[in-house]
Amino acid sequence: MDIFEQVGRMKHERVLFCSNNDVGLKAIIAVHSTVLGPALGGVRMWPYNTTDEALTDVLRLSRGMTYKAAAAGLNLGGGKAVIIGDPKKDKSEALFRTFGRAIDSLGGLYISAEDVGVDMEDMELILTETRWVTGVSPAYGGSGDPSTVTAFGVLQGIKAAARWRYGDRSLEGKRIAIQGLGSVGGYLAMYLKEKGAQLVGCDIDPEQEEHCAEAYGVEIVPTKEIFDVECDIFAPCALGAVLNDETIPRLKCDIIAGAANNQLAVPRRHGPAIDERGILYAPDFVINAGGLINVYNEITGSGYNRERALRLTRGIYLNMMRVFEISKTEGVPTYVAANRVAEERVANVNKLGATHWGRLVMRQRPV
Fold first, then answer.
1. Which domain holds residue 270?
2. How big is the chain by its Cα radius of gyration, in Å?
3. Which pick of 11, 42, 44, 292 has the fewest CB atoms within 10 Å?
4. How many domains in the chain?
């Protein structure tokens, strides 16, 4: 598919290709929508095989961020960035600072945050070149790693799904399979252990598997076998498109509720396929909004307040219950119900005419 056909099909406002051979930078910044506010979304570093593969990912992810912010009730638009490279080998100060200048050239249209392959230290390198950065350490006026709050939000969504399916939001004794025990999946395992769940999991990093097995009692299975585990709840917390023609028939669970973005490989096909199997699906952009809520609290109000961020993140429980109710009332798959919630909010705000988010000013950070 032609690059510009992809951009036009998803109706993005802006797509910026960034390249600097001297520092090894190849990146794409995608701004999907700024109707509700500036486009906030993470920077992902991944060894994509081709530029087209990276573009497809950033377009889908940025669109998902628009829906995530809208469904969470935040005054933010949707954006995302990807850096093509191996995060274990290709990172450098020059690369991230050059990328920071690309972000700065957009003048606040896009606000960056952490994502897969990028950590707080990397974000602080970007911060040296632009103020449009979130997820930095408290020393710089930020909230630090948002993974704990993302996982806390996923926990709220899992409770809502349990309440809807079983009539009780307690997770005591529930067998939960976690695909991906990285930053978010690992913290989710911690929260679920506290709630008395029985945990099974896997990760591509053996050290993460070992840590979660020792710290949270996770029963480790091979990554290729996680879809075959008999469980009450399957929690995808790795990369996207894991719910597809090959994996859905293998699932042995009542509920799918996890942190990964873009879990449905082809929503129009795989959303109904999950319904046909009698599995309750918690739409990803609703359940995993905790990290976005957390960094949103960095750029609003008088400064970051963790208790306020957690209080707002608890709202994911009610947001998810609303999606389930719409799905039942209107007789549509849950992913359709979630889309309607997000799209209606964007449409209603769009009717107001010119946007007013330009008044948003990033708080001055400590030097």
1. 147-346
2. 20
3. 11
4. 2
Euclidean distance between CA atoms 191 and 155, whole angstroms: 7
Enumerate the β-bridge partners of residue 264.
243
pLDDT over 80 at 6, yes or no: no
Identify whether 360 is part of a domain. Answer: no
What is the model's pLDDT at position 101?
A: 97
Closest CA to 106 of 137, 131, 83: 131
Structure tokens at 328: 């039942």
User: Is 1:323 a contact under the CB 8 Å cutoff?
Assistant: no
Strand order in the sheet with 198-202: 219-220, 198-202, 175-179, 233-236, 255-256, 280-281
Spell out a b/e string for 120-147, using b for 16 or more CB atoms within 10 Å of the CB, else e: bebbbbbbebbbbbbbbeeebbbbbbbb
Instruction: Say if residues 66 and 28 touch (Cβ distance below 8 Å).
Output: no
DSSP 117-134: T--HHHHHHHHTT-S-B-
Relative to beta strand 25-33, strand 77-84 is antiparallel
* Average pLDDT for the chain: 92
Q: What's the pLDDT at 300?
A: 81
Residue type, 240: G
Q: Is the pLDDT confidence value at 54 over 90? A: yes
Residues 293 and 151 in one domain: yes
Pair 235, 284: CB distance under 8 Å: no
Residue 319 domain-assigned?
yes
CB 224 within 8 A of CB 245: no
Catalytic residues, by residue number, are: 80
- Residue 352: pLDDT band by 50, 70, 90 thresholds? confident
